[in-house]
Write a structure and sequence with these properties.
- By secondary structure, this protein is of the alpha+beta class.
- The chain has one domain (6-136): Nuclear Transport Factor 2, Chain: A (Roll).
- The chain has helices spanning 20-24, 32-45, 48-53, 57-60, 65-74; strands at residues 75-87, 94-105, 108-121, 124-132.
- A four-stranded antiparallel sheet has the order 1-2-3-4.
- A hairpin with a 2-residue loop joins strand 2 and strand 3 (108-121).
- InterPro entries: NTF2-like_dom_sf, SEC_C_motif, YchJ-like_M.
- This is SEC-C motif-containing protein.
- It comes from Thiogranum longum.
- Residues 31-130 form the YchJ-like middle NTF2-like domain.
Amino acid sequence: MSEDTPCPCGSGLPLNACCKPVIDGTVKAATAEALMRSRYTAYTLHNINYLGATLDAGELQGFDRDGTTVWARDSTWIGLEIVKTSAGGPDDKDGSVEFRAHYERDGVMQEHHEVSRFRKINGSWLYSGGKDVGPVQFQRDTPKTGRNDPCPCGSGKKYKKCCGK
């Protein structure tokens, strides 16, 4: 990769000035978001060792190296979208990052939407778990019209005999 290759994390910076120094270990991630971005980039680069090295002890126990390798290798990584962050700054000990990782696998566009938790241990940010964010459930603004309720169109008929047919 050339020096001006854009970083896959979407920061707008070149890879060599963004996530690569963090992944190579020459620079520590300053924030939880910086670690999140570097972990996404590690997936795109298939750097499974880095992904394992940035897990806290509780997460490392359940780390599926083979499954992670297959997911990283068999996916075409499209982009990372940071939805929001909470704490996780240079002076914090904990933080969270909500993100969407877009990728293609087996010809199907996919999205991994998660709220990740991070902890700073001995000056280094580590991934300490996450929760998938499912699709947002539709909520009505008004109550549902019942079959025997008057039709909302104003005809005077029951809904089931009018617009509900």
